[in-house]
Amino acid sequence: MPDAFTCHIPKSHKNAVIIDSEIGFSLPAQDSPKYASVRLKALVDTGSNGTCISHRLASACHFEPVTAMKIFSAQGESIVPVYRMDIKLPCGTRFHDVLVTEVAGSENFDVIIGMDILSQGDIALCGDSEGLVFSMRFPSDKTPVDFTKAI
To answer: How far apart are the first and last CA of the chain?
Structure first.
């Protein structure tokens, strides 16, 4: 059964879709591995190929990179650390062992949900008199939404 989520974004905040999310990660332990999770804000970004976390979050959680990768962003080209973690969306869908790159981040969010995750489901962004309505469903229904057919 698919998981779904809808949120309303007021006109004053319609320049970005920022949703509640959760990341999960393993903590190094002396005798047995432990698992932790953190609730945070995530930017939905269809312009991002991959999912990213902020430098602030990576430092605060003492993440250990698994590798490094060259990325191209608004700030230019750079080599950044890559981490492995779980991502849980507000609809309840959890993605395991996602490779995420580190970015500078923003004061408004610590995770960028990119097309590596978004392309596995269906998303819709519609305007209304109050602002925007954002909906997501995972996994994808595989039935395209075509507004031209509806007209």
So the answer is: 30
